[in-house]
Amino acid sequence: MTSETPALELRGLRKRFGQIQANEDIHLRVREGSIHAIIGENGAGKSTAMKMVYGLYRPDEGRILLRGVQREWDSPSDAIAAGIGMVHQHFMLAGPYDAIENIVAGAEPEAPAWRFLPRAFRPVDRAGARARLEALSRQYGLQVDFASPVEELAVGVQQRIEILKLLYREASILILDEPTAVLTPQETTELFANLRRLRAEGKTILIITHKLKEVMALADQVTVFRAGRIVGDVARERTNVEELASMMVGRRVNLQIQAPPAPPRGEPVLEVRGLCLTPASSGERPLRELGLEVHAGEIVGIAGVEGNGQSELLQVLLHPRDYRARSQGEIRCLGRTILNPGGGERPLSTARIKALGVGVIPEDRHRQGLLLERPVAENFLLGLQGRAPFSRHGFLSGRSAREAATRALEEYDIRPRSLDVAAAGLSGGNQQKLVIAREFEGKPRLLIAAQPTRGVDVGAIEFIHRRIFRARDEGAGVLLVSSELDEILVLSDRILVIYEGRIVARFARGEASEQELGMHMGGGARA
Q1: Domains in the chain and their CATH numbers?
Q2: 29 or 427, higher pLDDT
Q3: pTM for this structure?
Q4: 3-state SS class at 491
């Protein structure tokens, strides 16, 4: 083995799932001690290739070489033992348990004094595990609260726990799938600093991502996937965002959409007045005298560091009955009062709120937007099954539903083009496009869009942004919640900044810079 021997090499990998060719003739070399970006459209085969490296899938053909030696895995356990670890886009953590219990699960250290007992009866050396994890935390700058349940920790801290899990198992090759998809800008900055530190320590890092600005800020080498094949492999300093985007989608992509002129504002479609919420747990954030309006024909963006009340606001808007006993204030939606604890009116149910003409792109597509084990056709119909043309005289029209779902797969470029595959079988970005296609099919008068482009590729982002503008121009009001400041600035006709459960700043389009928003988001100024 020479100094030029790559840490990881793939030679001619192929993988098929039924009629779908996920990967075809994949050749890839990853340099030792580098950060290597893997980019491509949703469904391009990026995650499939990396899952073969990690042992979740076995290649149909081809070879995997680790530092020049061909290796084969029967399971991820084999890959982990060989020094390969993977952080998935949706974290694999048990929420009620603390960080130590999550990290050592399956690799529990045994207390030396009890080794005379059969393995099944030996107690876990928790103190030893904590000491080792605290040392790793200090070495790599991965600060973690080891005592609290994971479900009460911020998303950025949960990701550090996932990385510590790999380091605890002595991984030298780390694969991160969409690592910034759920992070705030501040958390992303911290993650990049940690990854650079890991690279300096000699770790090899592969990042699957759609965010090209982040690729240009972090990666040493970039490999581009399209339609299951590698179509480009280039050093980061020899390329640019526009070239990478074109390689990804096979055409020129407009990376900065110009907002079309807004139509005249109509009547309010959402009114929130003096909304207060008392938390039920330490993981929930309070809302304090929060007020906002969304009118027909406008997009109102809410900017804020995650964990400042955005999630709680969305939950109260959509599930007011669950919060009646702990809330004050009034919410009106499309002319109806949906929450008014002081007025004695019964809050509306979620189903009745959506029936008013509310579309919802939820924060968490897995828990709130999809039935993962059910087919695409059924997921497309969720919430639409009682409306024409899908329902006639109380009976479901299967033919109409499948025709509409087929059109949506084509229009929104959802891959694979199969109505019968389970939603769990789609990539994260294609799952997101399925949710968005369904919500726009209902022609909402109010669209609540939470992180609408989370985990989707640059071509799909362009498409989704145009659809949101079209909904606005057709008279819908849009409430946009996004951790992407670029997205907030491009889409919003008005921007509200939320901090510690209050709206602390308000801007019209063009009035605020990213720096000004960041200052208010951090509590550095008050409106």
Answers
A1: 1-83+172-250 (3.40.50.300), 93-169 (no CATH), 266-357+444-527 (3.40.50.300), 363-443 (no CATH)
A2: 29
A3: 0.73
A4: helix
